[in-house]
Amino acid sequence: MAETVYLNGDWLPAEAAKVSVFDRGFLFADGIYEVVTVYAGQLFLLDRHLQRLNRSLSALGIANRSDSEWQQLFEQAIQKNAIADGFIYLQVTRGADTKRSHLPATMLTPTVFISATHIQLPTELPEPVRVCVMDDIRWLRCDIKSISLLGNILLKQQAVAMGGMEPLLHRAGRVTEGASCNYFIVKNGRLITPPKDELILPGITRDWLVELARDNGIEVHEEAFDLDALYAADECFLTSSSREIQPVGWLDEHMVADGRPGAMTRQLADLFRANAPIAAAKQQAAG
């Protein structure tokens, strides 16, 4: 089945979608994006994604649409592409100008692009991976879900070249996040993750897992921790919309505990798989 995408009011085959060479997303990465997971044809944690979308658009001063309009477009993308399990990708740029200029000449009409992708959901906890501990070289507004991802790409490329799957970033020794994920550690039965500030993107999966853990009696601390605490951790895993929960077995050449997923990582992965489709169904019914 050919992919059908949305671009500026039209649904059309992906290969037919075109944007202006003067689009500010193309020229300046002047835009934002969101990725919403779909379970069994239903949007997962949509209200949270829309809150983050609204925040990002407001931070850039880009015109927004109503939550109901976004939801309708996402649901159309699911239907037109027959998505059971997958992702909805949304990108909004400031729009196309008449020439290249750092400041737009006028208030522009935003460029809106939506696509849908099928995925195969994991049925078991993935094998632990190696991540590479690296300096966080990105800008200082990581809380905005910007399409300006060059720093993230360079860091991920370097991590892969070093034999890792993902970078684990820090600023002057304070752990922040990955190029496309959030990190958690476990120490003495406590689940710890960096706080939500300008240094990390407030991951939707991250936030939901924090709540899921607390609802199930797990002690959670959203607090800054350094590299010494990282290397002393009993468990380490990362989260994202695309990977859910991914155990980490090695930090560069340092093995985390015995290199296998720990008890809390397994417990949270089981809770995630048991609750994610249910939460999506409840949200759909409420909407």
TrEMBL record:
Gene Ontology terms: biological process: amino acid biosynthetic process; folic acid biosynthetic process
Domain of life of the organism encoding this protein: Bacteria
InterPro entries from the UniProt entry: Aminotrans_IV (IPR001544), Aminotransferase-like (IPR036038), BCAT-like_C (IPR043132), BCAT-like_N (IPR043131), Class-IV_PLP-Dep_Aminotrnsfr (IPR050571)
Catalyzed reaction equations: 4-amino-4-deoxychorismate = 4-aminobenzoate + pyruvate + H(+)
Keywords per UniProt: Folate biosynthesis, Pyridoxal phosphate
CDD domains: D-AAT_like (cd01558)
Gene Ontology MF term list: 4-amino-4-deoxychorismate lyase activity
UniProt cofactor(s): pyridoxal 5'-phosphate
SUPFAM superfamilies, alphabetized: D-aminoacid aminotransferase-like PLP-dependent enzymes (SSF56752)
Enzyme Commission number(s) from the entry: 4.1.3.38
One of the record's GO cellular component terms: cytosol
Annotated metabolic or biological route of this protein: Cofactor biosynthesis; tetrahydrofolate biosynthesis; 4-aminobenzoate from chorismate: step 2/2
PANTHER family: AMINO-ACID AMINOTRANSFERASE (PTHR42743), D-ALANINE AMINOTRANSFERASE (PTHR42743:SF10)
The protein's role, per its UniProt record: Involved in the biosynthesis of p-aminobenzoate (PABA), a precursor of tetrahydrofolate. Converts 4-amino-4-deoxychorismate into 4-aminobenzoate (PABA) and pyruvate.
Family, per entry: Belongs to the class-IV pyridoxal-phosphate-dependent aminotransferase family.
Name of the protein: Aminodeoxychorismate lyase
Lineage, opening ranks: Bacteria, Pseudomonadati, Pseudomonadota, Gammaproteobacteria, Alteromonadales
